[in-house]
Structure formats: structure tokens, C-alpha cells
Amino acid sequence: MLSIEALAIILLGLKTWSLCQMETSCVNVWSGWCMRALRKYGPRGQRRQFAIQEFCSSKKIITFHSEKQMELVADMCPNIAQVKFFYDSEILCEIKTLQKFSHLQDLRLNGGDFNKDPLRPLIENIGHQLRNLEFNHVDGIDRHAICADVPFA
After folding, report:
1. Is 140 strand, coil or helix?
2. Interatomic CA distance for residues 54 and 67, integer angstroms
3. Beta partners for 115?
4. Per DSSP, what are the bridge partners of residue 45?
């Protein structure tokens, strides 16, 4: 098994890392050893960025991410275009954190309540850049919620 130091050296040496598919959640790797390793082994005063474009959680493990974790991913992976996000509540992670992904085109949101959580403001702010929007297990959503502000001729 590689040490944290060895993993950090490998990670920091990847110039064109653009795809990250793992059985464990990618962001847990980031928040676990990547944050510590970059502080300790990363170039001083330089922000390391990667070309990763997809942020999807494990197919086997449902992971809820903190706001700090999501901000780190948005900062280090500014080209993320696809996000599969498990949302529980504003206490763990404010949903507006997803607005930091300026290249986001495909959002698959799992969880939340359309009427109680600030999902409508999120969609109003990023909807214009989305090609695909998928809601799974989102409560309080019906045709009235979707069409509430749509003017009809």
C-alpha cells in the first residue's frame, strides 16, 4: 500500500488527469489525503488544478459531501461539467455551492425537497448552462412546482 506522501507525489505529477472513476467517492479522496498532501507537498503559493470533468459518486456507496469538500473540488477541478450530487440538507452543504461549477452542463441531483430546500433558486441561477437536469428522489416536485413561474400565452 502506498503512503499518503507517495500518493501526493503521484497526484501532483499528473499533468493531464481528466477522468476519475473509482469505487469510493472521488471527493473523499480529495478531502482525505489530497488537502493535506497539497498543503504539505504542493508547490508553495501555487494552486494545483486538474482537467477532471466528471464528479460522480460511487455506485456502491451513497456519500453526502460537505460544503468544504465541494468548494475544494470546484477550486481544483474548474472544468467539471457533470455532477451527480447526493443532497441531504442545507446543514451539510448549501446547494448553492453547485453554482461554483461554471462549466456544469449535466446535473443529477439525488434528494432534497423542491419546496423546502433552495432548489428553485439554484435552477434559476444555473439552468441556462445545463443541457441535462435529472431529479431523483426529490420530494415536493410536481407540474405546479415546475411551471409556477412560466408565463402561458
Report:
1. coil
2. 18
3. none
4. none
* CA 39-92-66 angle, 5° bins: 25
What's the pLDDT tens digit per position in 79-129?
A: 889 988 888 887 778 899 999 999 999 999 989 998 899 998 999 999 999
CA dihedral of residues 68, 73, 76, 81 (deg, nearest 10): -150
Burial of 21 by CB count in 10 Å (0-12 exposed, 13-18 middle, 19+ buried)?
Answer: exposed
Q: Are 41 and 12 in contact (CB under 8 A)?
A: yes
Find which of 50-54, 71-75, 116-120, 128-132 is predicted with most confidence, using mean pLDDT.
128-132
Give the cell for residue 62. Answer: 451513497
Distance CA(99)–CA(58), nearest Å, equals 22
Q: Give me the residue label for grid cell 471527493.
A: 27
